[in-house]
Amino acid sequence: MQNRPLIHTAMPKRRYRVGRYFATLLGDIESSDEHCYHYILAFVLEGQSDPVVYVCAEVTPPPQQANGAYQLRVITEKRAEVVNIADRWGDLEIFATQALNVGMQLLRLRQALIERL
């Protein structure tokens, strides 16, 4: 995956099981790419090691900060795009809920149960 976050260190905040996927929510992230990550939720298919979907809360670049402090960005094999900009993505609870929903939509897991581990 081309645009995957280049994470050096991160602290796992939460783990979930969503259907056949495990999702790990990371915080306190240090990376070597140009993005400043606040949170990342990474979805990994059971039995695999590499995430197939990332939902990220990133600090909004200064020119766009009037729209919000954080941008919600999705990264898959086929795309990487900002889907929303708002202050609320800096809140762990709000981000976790939205990131799970977005990831489930991208992975077509509409009927899957979310189990917090």
What does it look like?
The model has no long low-confidence stretch (mean pLDDT 94). A hairpin with a 4-residue loop joins strand 5 (70-75) and strand 6. The protein is globular, with a radius of gyration of 13 Å. Helix content is 13%, strand content 47%. It has one helix spanning 92-106; strands spanning 7-18, 21-31, 37-45, 53-59, 70-75, 80-86, 114-116. With 117 residues, the chain is mainly beta. It has a 7-stranded antiparallel sheet with strand order 6-5-4-3-2-1-7, covered by helices on one side.
Indicate the low-confidence ranges by residue numbers.
none
What is the number of strand segments?
Answer: 7
* Alpha carbon gyration radius: 13 Å
Q: Strand pairing plus helix content: what structural class? A: mainly beta
Q: Mind describing the biggest β-sheet?
A: 7 strands, antiparallel
Number of helices: 1
State which percent range the strand residues make up: over 45%
Give the overall silhouette: globular
Order of helices and strands: EEEEEEHE
Helix content: 10-25%
Strand order of the largest sheet: 6-5-4-3-2-1-7
**Mean pLDDT, as a whole number?**
94
Distance from first to last alpha carbon:
27 Å
Q: What keywords describe this structure?
A:
single chain, 117 residues, mainly beta, seven-stranded antiparallel beta sheet, 7 strands, 13% helix, globular
Topology (SSEs and partners):
Layout: E1 7-18, E2 21-31, E3 37-45, E4 53-59, E5 70-75, E6 80-86, H1 92-106, E7 114-116
